[in-house]
TrEMBL record:
The lineage of its organism: Eukaryota, Metazoa, Chordata, Craniata, Vertebrata. Probable molecular chaperone assisting protein biosynthesis and transport in the endoplasmic reticulum. Required for the proper biosynthesis and transport of pulmonary surfactant-associated protein A/SP-A, pulmonary surfactant-associated protein D/SP-D and the lipid transporter ABCA3. By regulating both the proper expression and the degradation through the endoplasmic reticulum-associated protein degradation pathway of these proteins plays a crucial role in pulmonary surfactant homeostasis. Has an anti-fibrotic activity by negatively regulating the secretion of type I and type III collagens. It is found in: Endoplasmic reticulum lumen. The keyword Zinc-finger does not apply. GO terms for cellular component: endoplasmic reticulum lumen. Residues 1-18 form the signal peptide. Residues 68-103, 104-139, 151-186, 262-297 form the EF-hand domain. InterPro entries: EF-hand-dom_pair, EF_Hand_1_Ca_BS, EF_hand_dom. It comes from Strix occidentalis caurina. Keywords: Calcium, Chaperone, Endoplasmic reticulum, Glycoprotein, Metal-binding, Repeat, Signal. It comes from the Eukaryota. This is Reticulocalbin-3.
Protein backbone atom coordinates (compact mmCIF):
# COMPACT_ATOMS: atom_id res chain seq x y z
CA UNK A 1 0.00 0.00 0.00
CA UNK A 2 1.37 3.39 -0.95
CA UNK A 3 1.73 6.27 1.49
CA UNK A 4 -1.27 8.19 0.03
CA UNK A 5 -3.43 5.04 0.19
CA UNK A 6 -2.41 4.36 3.77
CA UNK A 7 -3.13 7.89 4.86
CA UNK A 8 -6.49 7.83 3.08
CA UNK A 9 -7.47 4.61 4.86
CA UNK A 10 -6.53 6.11 8.21
CA UNK A 11 -8.46 9.28 7.54
CA UNK A 12 -11.55 7.38 6.45
CA UNK A 13 -11.46 5.31 9.62
CA UNK A 14 -11.59 8.49 11.69
CA UNK A 15 -14.68 9.72 9.89
CA UNK A 16 -16.54 6.77 11.42
CA UNK A 17 -16.15 8.11 14.98
CA UNK A 18 -19.51 8.62 16.69
CA UNK A 19 -20.91 9.11 20.16
CA UNK A 20 -21.67 5.41 20.59
CA UNK A 21 -19.66 3.58 23.25
CA UNK A 22 -17.85 1.35 20.74
CA UNK A 23 -15.41 4.20 20.06
CA UNK A 24 -12.73 5.68 22.27
CA UNK A 25 -13.29 9.43 22.32
CA UNK A 26 -9.88 10.86 23.19
CA UNK A 27 -7.72 8.90 20.74
CA UNK A 28 -7.89 7.06 17.44
CA UNK A 29 -6.29 3.60 17.50
CA UNK A 30 -5.11 1.52 14.58
CA UNK A 31 -4.00 -1.65 16.34
CA UNK A 32 -5.17 -5.05 15.07
CA UNK A 33 -8.95 -4.96 14.86
CA UNK A 34 -11.54 -7.68 15.40
CA UNK A 35 -12.20 -7.50 11.67
CA UNK A 36 -10.64 -5.94 8.61
CA UNK A 37 -14.06 -4.49 7.71
CA UNK A 38 -14.87 -0.83 8.32
CA UNK A 39 -16.88 -0.38 11.52
CA UNK A 40 -19.72 1.76 10.23
CA UNK A 41 -23.18 0.62 11.33
CA UNK A 42 -24.81 3.13 8.99
CA UNK A 43 -23.37 1.13 6.11
CA UNK A 44 -23.55 -2.47 7.33
CA UNK A 45 -22.85 -4.71 10.33
CA UNK A 46 -20.01 -6.69 8.76
CA UNK A 47 -17.49 -5.66 11.42
CA UNK A 48 -19.84 -6.72 14.21
CA UNK A 49 -20.49 -10.08 12.54
CA UNK A 50 -16.76 -10.83 12.29
CA UNK A 51 -16.19 -9.68 15.87
CA UNK A 52 -19.05 -11.72 17.33
CA UNK A 53 -18.61 -14.90 15.30
CA UNK A 54 -15.13 -14.82 13.83
CA UNK A 55 -14.64 -14.15 10.12
CA UNK A 56 -15.12 -17.74 8.93
CA UNK A 57 -18.29 -18.39 10.90
CA UNK A 58 -19.69 -15.02 9.81
CA UNK A 59 -19.44 -16.17 6.20
CA UNK A 60 -21.51 -19.23 7.07
CA UNK A 61 -24.27 -17.12 8.59
CA UNK A 62 -24.40 -15.02 5.43
CA UNK A 63 -25.96 -18.02 3.71
CA UNK A 64 -28.78 -18.47 6.25
CA UNK A 65 -32.31 -17.16 6.10
CA UNK A 66 -33.38 -14.74 8.86
CA UNK A 67 -35.35 -17.51 10.55
CA UNK A 68 -32.37 -19.84 10.59
CA UNK A 69 -30.07 -17.07 11.83
CA UNK A 70 -32.39 -16.31 14.74
CA UNK A 71 -32.68 -19.98 15.68
CA UNK A 72 -28.93 -20.54 15.69
CA UNK A 73 -28.27 -17.23 17.45
CA UNK A 74 -30.61 -18.37 20.23
CA UNK A 75 -28.44 -21.47 20.71
CA UNK A 76 -25.29 -19.32 20.84
CA UNK A 77 -26.86 -17.05 23.46
CA UNK A 78 -27.16 -20.04 25.77
CA UNK A 79 -23.40 -20.62 25.43
CA UNK A 80 -22.52 -16.98 26.07
CA UNK A 81 -24.60 -16.92 29.27
CA UNK A 82 -22.01 -18.84 31.27
CA UNK A 83 -23.62 -18.34 34.70
CA UNK A 84 -27.01 -19.44 33.30
CA UNK A 85 -28.94 -16.59 34.92
CA UNK A 86 -30.88 -15.82 31.75
CA UNK A 87 -28.95 -12.63 30.94
CA UNK A 88 -25.89 -11.82 28.86
CA UNK A 89 -23.61 -9.20 30.41
CA UNK A 90 -20.88 -7.08 28.87
CA UNK A 91 -18.30 -9.32 30.53
CA UNK A 92 -19.81 -12.47 29.07
CA UNK A 93 -19.97 -10.89 25.62
CA UNK A 94 -16.35 -9.79 25.89
CA UNK A 95 -15.25 -13.32 26.81
CA UNK A 96 -17.23 -14.76 23.88
CA UNK A 97 -15.73 -12.28 21.39
CA UNK A 98 -12.21 -13.10 22.58
CA UNK A 99 -13.02 -16.80 22.19
CA UNK A 100 -14.32 -16.23 18.67
CA UNK A 101 -11.16 -14.38 17.72
CA UNK A 102 -8.90 -17.04 19.21
CA UNK A 103 -10.80 -19.70 17.27
CA UNK A 104 -10.22 -17.76 14.08
CA UNK A 105 -6.49 -17.52 14.79
CA UNK A 106 -6.09 -21.21 15.62
CA UNK A 107 -8.20 -22.32 12.66
CA UNK A 108 -5.93 -20.23 10.43
CA UNK A 109 -2.87 -21.98 11.85
CA UNK A 110 -4.44 -25.42 11.42
CA UNK A 111 -5.13 -24.73 7.76
CA UNK A 112 -1.49 -23.90 7.13
CA UNK A 113 0.17 -26.45 9.38
CA UNK A 114 0.06 -29.41 7.01
CA UNK A 115 1.40 -27.34 4.14
CA UNK A 116 4.55 -26.31 5.99
CA UNK A 117 5.24 -29.42 8.11
CA UNK A 118 6.71 -31.17 5.10
CA UNK A 119 8.21 -34.16 6.92
CA UNK A 120 5.14 -34.58 9.15
CA UNK A 121 7.17 -34.65 12.38
CA UNK A 122 4.86 -32.31 14.28
CA UNK A 123 7.18 -29.32 14.01
CA UNK A 124 7.91 -26.68 11.38
CA UNK A 125 11.53 -25.73 10.87
CA UNK A 126 12.68 -22.45 9.40
CA UNK A 127 14.06 -24.39 6.42
CA UNK A 128 10.64 -25.95 5.78
CA UNK A 129 8.87 -22.60 5.95
CA UNK A 130 11.49 -20.91 3.76
CA UNK A 131 11.42 -23.65 1.12
CA UNK A 132 7.63 -23.70 0.86
CA UNK A 133 7.25 -19.93 0.86
CA UNK A 134 10.28 -18.73 -1.08
CA UNK A 135 11.85 -21.74 -2.80
CA UNK A 136 10.77 -20.97 -6.36
CA UNK A 137 11.21 -17.21 -6.03
CA UNK A 138 14.76 -17.37 -4.74
CA UNK A 139 15.82 -19.20 -7.88
CA UNK A 140 14.89 -16.14 -9.92
CA UNK A 141 17.05 -13.09 -9.09
CA UNK A 142 14.83 -10.79 -11.16
CA UNK A 143 11.16 -11.82 -10.77
CA UNK A 144 8.54 -10.30 -13.07
CA UNK A 145 6.41 -8.92 -10.24
CA UNK A 146 9.23 -6.72 -8.97
CA UNK A 147 9.12 -7.91 -5.35
CA UNK A 148 12.36 -8.31 -3.46
CA UNK A 149 11.72 -11.74 -1.99
CA UNK A 150 15.11 -11.91 -0.32
CA UNK A 151 14.27 -8.87 1.80
CA UNK A 152 10.88 -10.37 2.63
CA UNK A 153 12.58 -13.60 3.65
CA UNK A 154 14.95 -11.73 5.97
CA UNK A 155 11.97 -10.12 7.71
CA UNK A 156 10.20 -13.47 8.02
CA UNK A 157 13.31 -15.12 9.43
CA UNK A 158 13.65 -12.39 12.05
CA UNK A 159 10.03 -12.90 13.09
CA UNK A 160 10.40 -16.71 13.06
CA UNK A 161 13.42 -16.52 15.37
CA UNK A 162 11.59 -14.23 17.77
CA UNK A 163 8.63 -16.63 17.91
CA UNK A 164 11.00 -19.57 18.44
CA UNK A 165 11.45 -19.28 22.20
CA UNK A 166 13.98 -22.09 22.62
CA UNK A 167 16.07 -20.93 19.67
CA UNK A 168 16.27 -24.28 17.86
CA UNK A 169 14.88 -22.85 14.58
CA UNK A 170 11.99 -25.30 14.86
CA UNK A 171 8.51 -24.12 15.74
CA UNK A 172 5.93 -25.92 17.82
CA UNK A 173 2.32 -25.21 16.93
CA UNK A 174 2.18 -22.50 19.59
CA UNK A 175 5.39 -20.89 18.33
CA UNK A 176 4.13 -21.07 14.75
CA UNK A 177 0.95 -19.35 15.89
CA UNK A 178 3.05 -16.57 17.42
CA UNK A 179 4.96 -16.31 14.14
CA UNK A 180 1.81 -15.99 12.02
CA UNK A 181 -0.12 -13.80 14.50
CA UNK A 182 2.47 -11.82 16.48
CA UNK A 183 -0.11 -9.29 17.64
CA UNK A 184 -1.68 -12.03 19.81
CA UNK A 185 1.46 -12.53 21.92
CA UNK A 186 2.99 -10.03 24.30
CA UNK A 187 6.56 -11.19 23.66
CA UNK A 188 6.07 -10.70 19.90
CA UNK A 189 4.70 -7.17 19.90
CA UNK A 190 8.05 -5.47 19.31
CA UNK A 191 8.33 -7.21 15.95
CA UNK A 192 5.11 -5.59 14.78
CA UNK A 193 6.72 -2.16 14.88
CA UNK A 194 10.33 -3.17 14.27
CA UNK A 195 11.13 -0.87 11.36
CA UNK A 196 13.75 1.83 10.87
CA UNK A 197 12.31 5.27 11.62
CA UNK A 198 14.35 6.93 8.88
CA UNK A 199 12.83 4.72 6.16
CA UNK A 200 9.35 3.98 7.47
CA UNK A 201 6.49 5.85 5.83
CA UNK A 202 4.34 5.16 8.87
CA UNK A 203 6.73 6.73 11.38
CA UNK A 204 6.80 10.10 9.69
CA UNK A 205 3.43 10.12 8.01
CA UNK A 206 1.74 12.47 10.42
CA UNK A 207 4.20 15.31 10.58
CA UNK A 208 2.92 18.60 9.27
CA UNK A 209 4.95 18.68 6.04
CA UNK A 210 3.94 15.13 5.08
CA UNK A 211 0.27 15.92 5.60
CA UNK A 212 0.61 18.95 3.30
CA UNK A 213 2.23 16.75 0.66
CA UNK A 214 -0.73 14.36 0.64
CA UNK A 215 -3.24 16.74 -0.93
CA UNK A 216 -3.26 19.10 -3.89
CA UNK A 217 -3.01 22.86 -3.41
CA UNK A 218 -5.61 24.32 -5.75
CA UNK A 219 -5.36 28.09 -5.56
CA UNK A 220 -6.25 29.31 -2.10
CA UNK A 221 -8.40 26.31 -1.26
CA UNK A 222 -8.49 25.36 2.39
CA UNK A 223 -6.80 22.14 3.38
CA UNK A 224 -9.14 19.13 3.69
CA UNK A 225 -10.68 18.46 7.08
CA UNK A 226 -8.96 15.08 7.32
CA UNK A 227 -5.55 16.75 7.07
CA UNK A 228 -6.41 19.03 9.96
CA UNK A 229 -7.67 16.05 11.96
CA UNK A 230 -4.52 14.04 11.27
CA UNK A 231 -2.31 16.93 12.32
CA UNK A 232 -4.26 17.40 15.55
CA UNK A 233 -4.07 13.68 16.33
CA UNK A 234 -0.34 13.66 15.66
CA UNK A 235 0.42 16.70 17.78
CA UNK A 236 -1.94 15.95 20.65
CA UNK A 237 -1.68 12.18 21.05
CA UNK A 238 0.98 10.45 18.94
CA UNK A 239 4.06 12.65 19.19
CA UNK A 240 4.36 12.37 22.96
CA UNK A 241 7.86 13.81 23.24
CA UNK A 242 7.00 16.66 20.84
CA UNK A 243 10.01 16.11 18.57
CA UNK A 244 7.99 16.25 15.35
CA UNK A 245 8.18 12.54 14.52
CA UNK A 246 7.10 9.17 15.88
CA UNK A 247 9.82 7.04 17.44
CA UNK A 248 9.59 3.29 18.02
CA UNK A 249 7.75 3.48 21.36
CA UNK A 250 5.28 6.08 20.08
CA UNK A 251 4.59 3.93 17.03
CA UNK A 252 4.11 0.85 19.20
CA UNK A 253 1.65 2.68 21.42
CA UNK A 254 -0.27 3.80 18.32
CA UNK A 255 -0.40 0.37 16.67
CA UNK A 256 -0.66 -1.78 19.80
CA UNK A 257 -1.96 0.44 22.61
CA UNK A 258 -2.07 -1.16 26.05
CA UNK A 259 -4.98 0.95 27.27
CA UNK A 260 -7.64 -0.06 24.75
CA UNK A 261 -9.42 -3.40 24.44
CA UNK A 262 -11.30 -3.92 21.19
CA UNK A 263 -13.27 -6.90 22.53
CA UNK A 264 -14.43 -4.84 25.50
CA UNK A 265 -15.37 -1.92 23.24
CA UNK A 266 -17.31 -4.19 20.89
CA UNK A 267 -19.15 -5.86 23.78
CA UNK A 268 -20.13 -2.44 25.10
CA UNK A 269 -21.30 -1.46 21.63
CA UNK A 270 -23.46 -4.57 21.21
CA UNK A 271 -25.12 -4.03 24.59
CA UNK A 272 -25.70 -0.35 23.83
CA UNK A 273 -27.41 -1.16 20.54
CA UNK A 274 -29.53 -4.07 21.82
CA UNK A 275 -30.48 -3.25 25.42
CA UNK A 276 -34.08 -2.15 24.90
CA UNK A 277 -34.97 -1.73 28.57
CA UNK A 278 -31.59 -0.14 29.39
CA UNK A 279 -30.87 -2.37 32.37
CA UNK A 280 -27.25 -2.94 31.31
CA UNK A 281 -27.67 -6.58 30.29
CA UNK A 282 -29.32 -8.50 27.47
CA UNK A 283 -32.03 -11.12 27.40
CA UNK A 284 -32.20 -13.81 24.74
CA UNK A 285 -35.14 -11.95 23.21
CA UNK A 286 -33.25 -8.66 22.99
CA UNK A 287 -30.32 -10.32 21.24
CA UNK A 288 -32.44 -12.31 18.79
CA UNK A 289 -34.46 -9.18 18.00
CA UNK A 290 -31.20 -7.59 16.82
CA UNK A 291 -29.99 -10.69 14.97
CA UNK A 292 -28.95 -8.56 11.99
CA UNK A 293 -26.44 -6.75 14.23
CA UNK A 294 -25.03 -9.91 15.83
CA UNK A 295 -24.94 -12.40 12.96
CA UNK A 296 -26.82 -11.16 9.90
CA UNK A 297 -28.26 -13.40 7.21
CA UNK A 298 -29.42 -13.46 3.65
CA UNK A 299 -31.59 -15.94 1.78
CA UNK A 300 -29.78 -17.80 -0.96
CA UNK A 301 -31.14 -17.75 -4.51
CA UNK A 302 -33.00 -20.99 -3.98
CA UNK A 303 -34.09 -20.27 -0.39
CA UNK A 304 -31.74 -22.93 0.91
CA UNK A 305 -29.15 -22.55 3.67
CA UNK A 306 -25.87 -24.07 4.64
CA UNK A 307 -26.43 -26.09 7.79
CA UNK A 308 -23.71 -26.58 10.36
CA UNK A 309 -23.99 -27.64 13.99
CA UNK A 310 -20.50 -27.02 15.40
CA UNK A 311 -20.61 -23.41 16.58
CA UNK A 312 -17.71 -23.24 18.99
Amino acid sequence: MSVPQLLLCLSLSMLCISSKPTEKKDRVHHDPQLSDKVHDDAQNFDYDHDAFLGADEAKTFDQLTPEESKERLGVIVGKIDTDKDGFVTEGELKAWIKKAQKKYVYDSVERQWQEFDMNQDGFISWDEYRNVTYGTYLDDPDPDDGFNYKQMMVRDERRFKMADKDGDLTATKEEFTAFLHPEEYEYMKDIVVQVRPQKSAVWGIFNTQTSRDMYSHDGDADEPEWVKTEREQFVEFRDKNRDGKMDKEETKDWILPSDYDHAEAEARHLVYESDQDKDGKLTREEIVEKYDLFVGSQATDFGEALVRHDEF
